[in-house]
Sequence to fold (456 residues):
Amino acid sequence: MEILTVPLEGQSPPGELMAAEVREQLGRMLASHLFRQSRRFAPLLRFIVEESLAGRGEALKERLLGVHVFHREPSYDTAADPIVRVTVAEVRKRIALYYHDEAHAHELRIELPPGHYVAEFRPGKPVRNSEMPESVTLPEPQRLENVSVVPDPELSGAHFPAEPFPHPSTELHAPTMFLHSRFRQWLAGLGIALLLGATVGVVAILVLRPQTAKQDGFWTAWLPPGKPILLCLPTDVGRHPGALTQAASLLPVDSNRSQPSLASAKVTFLEHETAGENVVFSDAVAGMRVVDALARHAQNFHVRLNNSVTLDDLRQGPAVLIGGLDNQWSLQAIAPLRYKFAGSDELGYWISDTEDRNNRRWFLNLKQEYASVTRDYALIAFVHSPEAGQPQLVIAGIGMSGTMAAGEFVSDPARMEQLGKRLGSNLNDRDFEVVLGTDVIHGISGAPEVLATWIR
Fold:
């Protein structure tokens, strides 16, 4: 039996014995709190491990896992249904958490390295015998004979132990002990002073931070006092393959109504839980960066998924719209602007320039191998929506890394200040767009780079 693994030290090449050890370790992992209550993570990890043990690891692809583990149709669209990618990412995180516990550090390691779906097996940390002896005999303390205590006029009434603490080579006199006591009291006082100072400093920061943040031009200018911001996050529910070739399919027939919710369909709670309200990690990160910016300005907000937001909701106040290809409200907001998303699942996607439609330099094929993606692109758009009658900030990448980079950009006061210098003052009163590029390593975005801007 061929096993894709790294042999343990001192053992023969992996075989049946090794397979038994791997399965035993798999059982321990699946019995932990990280896996035992999940109906998705445990079956996926077990299937990948068993296929890897059987020597079929190289055949593990996204579609195969979707069909055999999640019971998808063989022809299902992996771009529109990312359940495998999302679940594998969560399994990797839980594996890391499992081995982060020192109690499991010496166990055989089962890992799912990024870039493929093959399990790898590695030895845990070696157990080292303690170099300390089983018991240590401490020497009996020595008694000091004829210790003289010199009285000090300043210490009248002071209480000392009947017998000074013995030291093998030093006689302790009362004045010395008093100095030590004074030193300890001084240290205690200094510690209390530092603690009080730190507390006052923290309180001052918390109290003064909103006033300082008010100087942050762009965010402050369009945030309404006393009115919460709508933060709209996307979900994959309702997304159709090749949606951007039929843009209208992303919008409700009646734009005052939300898209159909899974809650009204005949689905089980489990199906709704696994596919109904999931948010892609990068979109969540971008949302958290926006929340941090809002917190700097003491601004209230509420979060909604795009498939439950209505036009009436958007009329209530300003909104931040996260995501592009999977958020119909973002597509609607940027529709009248210069830069917008174009393409399809089959052709790939790009940021289109209405003044140079043949230029597809900002392009990403979402179907290429995860590890081979090295560049992603994003749009930041600020638009005064005529439909909603409210300002809207769009933060959207072609891929997940682009959205993450765009969230980093808008939440960075220094970058937004530089953008203001580039586009001119009063950004909050005008519509503008920024095209960003970012380098990507294993799905993680690098620093965002401004590629183009437009303002009207």
